[in-house]
């Protein structure tokens, strides 16, 4: 049996020992920036198999969990909220590639990571073909709590406004100028929990919203 590491096919027994040793107990630091405010990449970023989606389920599960946390920290640091798969795959740079070791995720690999990112509640696909993903460093449930507290503290409970008004008219709030798809995803979580009512508009920005009292 074999396992892939970049372009090489390694003996599975030896490769799995290497991969598991690198991934076992691996934790992402709570902060990944240094005093110069430049992103500090973790050690596993220089590990070639990190950029090949592993076929063994147990290893793959651990790998994707690490990818999600790594991407969340990277997006938070760079304030990035969108990934275009074709562009990211062609670029070859961070976060999906490491030019220093000449390794990068394929387009399919990036999509696999982003699917897991969405599954864990940090992202949402912006198109039906799943070529563009909107990404967040907070879970949508967390954004829902922030939105509810904003409405409660500012007398907005029970009042109807549009998605565009929420995201553009509150410059002091974390959700100011948030990607419409991300804000919509957070509001849908609130609707599911009985904390919001949504009224369709001609466009996403015109979506009507009423945040209701618990």
From TrEMBL:
InterPro entries to which the protein is assigned, alphabetical: ESCRT-II_cplx_Vps25-sub, ESCRT-II_cplx_Vps25-sub_N, WH-like_DNA-bd_sf, WH_DNA-bd_sf
GO-annotated molecular function: protein homodimerization activity; structural molecule activity
Source organism, top-level taxon: Eukaryota
SUPFAM superfamilies in the record: Winged helix' DNA-binding domain
Annotated keywords: Protein transport, Transport
Gene Ontology biological process terms, A to Z: protein transport to vacuole involved in ubiquitin-dependent protein catabolic process via the multivesicular body sorting pathway
Gene Ontology CC, one term: ESCRT II complex
Pfam families: ESCRT-II (PF05871)
Family the UniProt entry places it in: Belongs to the VPS25 family.
Protein name: ESCRT-II complex subunit VPS25
Organism: Lotharella oceanica
